Each structure stands twice: as C-alpha cells, then as structure tokens.
Amino acid sequence: KLFFTDYGNAAKVERCDMDGMNRTWIVDSKIEQPTALALDLINKYVYWVDIYLDSVEVVDYQGRRRHTIIKSRQIRHLCGLAVFENYLYTVNSDNLSILQINRYNGTDVQSLARLENAKEIRVYQKRTQTAVRSHACEVDPYGMPGGCSHICLLSSYYKARTCRCRTGFILGSDGRSCK
C-alpha cells in the first residue's frame, strides 16, 4: 500500500494500492494540514503531523483507533517524521532540532541534536525492514520487471501487478509492452 497526505480542498490521510487503484480516505475529519507521515509496519499504524493543529496523531491502516499522541505549541513547526521502537523522531523547522517523542504517551519529548537545513528524517535499522518475499514485479528471465517493458507497479496484493509506460508511450493490447 501507498499512504499519503493531502491538504488541498479537503484535508485527509489516504491510502491506495501501489498502482494508484483502490484509493481510500482513512482520515478526513478534524484534520487541517497533515504533512509528515510515518508508518509502523509491524503494528499497522499511520502517524502524521498536522502543522495547523500543532498535533501528532495516529490511526490504524483502516482509519480506526485514532488518537492524539501530542498536541502542543512545543511541536509547532514539525517536518519529517519517522517511527522506531517506542519513539517518533521529527525535525523542528524553527530551530532545526531533532525531536524524540514517546509515541505511547507523548509526554516524553526530548531535543536530541541540531542540524542545519534539516527537513526530513529517516531511521535505517535492520529491524525496521520487513522481509521481502517473492512478488509480481520480480525481474523475469528477459530482465523485465514483472514482464513489463517499462514500469511494473504492485497492485492489490504482492502477487498482482499493473504495467505502465514512461511518458510518451502507450500500453500495448497485451498489457505489458509499451509503444
């Protein structure tokens, strides 16, 4: 799945399949300017920062069990969000500090460091990477991902895929080759 935020005409947090199909709103109320977003892949939670409401909130992948982690002027200008173990990590764009926030109670907020021009944060650690199983976009014997001549996108589950073409090309009737 692909998770993303939108604060155009109606602010929301959404999800869709990797090929853009099955687009679903998972949060569309009591939300103003959702920006940074992070996933807890193990427990299937979506965390986001709302920079207008000065809050960090969480919801499960289906849009249930929503609650506020922290709502405070202390977290006023956050950008970037990552989750690892018991904490959320984010960047305060006002003073360029890296913040650590306890994701269970929100009361434990610590400034860890300052970085010039930081706008995003990621945690790279072996335990945060899920095991990869075979999938529909694996390279075939001819070197084509999923048998697609240009782009292979995973669909509704890991064994389904959709082929797409680069700009200027159209998908052939076989659903795989681009012309």
Automatic annotation (TrEMBL):
Example of a GO biological process term: canonical Wnt signaling pathway
One term of GO molecular function: Wnt-protein binding
GO CC terms in record: plasma membrane
Per-repeat ranges for LDL-receptor class B: 1-43, 44-87
Name this protein carries in UniProt: LRP1B protein
Species, as recorded: Nyctiprogne leucopyga
Source taxonomy: Eukaryota, Metazoa, Chordata, Craniata, Vertebrata
